[in-house]
Amino acid sequence: MQCLIWFALAIIMLRMIRDLDMTLIRTFVTTADKASMTAAANALHLTQGAVSQQVKRLEEVLGQSLFERDRRGLRLTRSGERLLDKARRLLRLNDEILAEIRGGAVAGRVRVGVPYDLVGTLLAPVLKAYAEAYPQVEISLVCASSPELAAALAAGTIDLAVIEERVGPSPGECLLIDRLVWVGARGGAARLKRPLPVSIVADTCAFRPAVLSALAEHGLDWRTVFENGNIDATTATVRSDLAVTTWLASTVPADLDILSDAGLPALPNFSVNLHLPKHATQPAAQAFAGHIREGLSRYRQAA
DNA sequence: ATCCGTCGATCCGGCACTTG
DNA sequence: CAAGTGCCGGATCGACGGAT
């Protein structure tokens, strides 16, 4: 009898809950992202048991099962899928409110200079993370070759720049060092043609002097196929086997080949450097610099 | 078939913190 | 200050996959 009373009370209490607990929402989103309670527990610095309990509490509050406990993992139920997007929005709003009210919010505008080949590869996750962390900052992205970005920074038309340079002394801060490699279509024949068809994204490209110098030293005849400053066009040219190109190893698309054994001249390593203006930088730019350092640190460790 | 490891669920006692 | 809440660490259980 007493059990029945307690059960009834619990049901009444649950029906009275009108507010979602942000802690439970965060745990739910993390668990969904990781597809594992153990992994979510590690990410949230909790124990697996605590995560299990929080998910269960949220399911009780909502009166819906959010996960299908399945064999060796978790899968979102339809209710879970419906909740996930809204839960993310709730978290973003929550974080935004906290940042604003606490007064330390970074706001304003940041103009970021990024080389063509890094914007969609190494820096894409950095840009995404920054935009999520500082939704009130307006980001202006300037894509250009590294020499053009250096000039723009000196002219004060951008607030910070990521610049690719030959490894060596630089006023910039080295974020990572990567191999410059020859790239061609998978199983393609362009690498064998003479003169070698070479596509370089732009004639001001930072890699161009090093590539031309290597070709000259190797005595290899070559010709330019496409140079209009468009990375997508260059990628399409290479993918179509019309030409080979040179990229940093960590930016090579998975469906293209790194031509390490094609008789092409060895290329030097390049440094990806962060350049900030000499005068004081805005908080939004400082925060962006921090995101880039953190975002590229994993590549630095992997290299 | 059996053993071992992993994962999630659940329970327990203890602890820290909050609330009334 | 007592009661309530939530977490932790530990233990145990069942389900399952992989190796032997």
Question: How does this model look, in words?
Answer:
With 303 residues, this protein is α/β, with parallel strands linked by helices. It folds into three domains: 2-101, Arc Repressor Mutant, subunit A (Orthogonal Bundle), CATH 1.10.10; 112-163 and 275-302, D-Maltodextrin-Binding Protein, domain 2, CATH 3.40.190; 176-270, D-Maltodextrin-Binding Protein, domain 2, CATH 3.40.190. It has eleven helices and eleven strands. It has helices spanning 2-16, 22-34, 37-44, 48-62, 78-101, 116-119, 124-133, 146-155, 208-218, 231-239, 283-302; strands at residues 67-70, 73-76, 108-114, 137-143, 160-166, 173-185, 196-199, 222-226, 245-248, 256-258, 269-275. The strands form three sheets. Strands 3, 4, 5, 6, 9, 10 and 11 form a seven-stranded mixed sheet that branches. A two-stranded antiparallel sheet has the order 1-2. A two-stranded parallel sheet has the order 7-8. It starts with a helix and ends with a helix. The structure holds a DNA duplex (20 and 20 nucleotides). InterPro entries: LTTR, LysR_HTH_N, LysR_subst-bd, WH-like_DNA-bd_sf, WH_DNA-bd_sf.
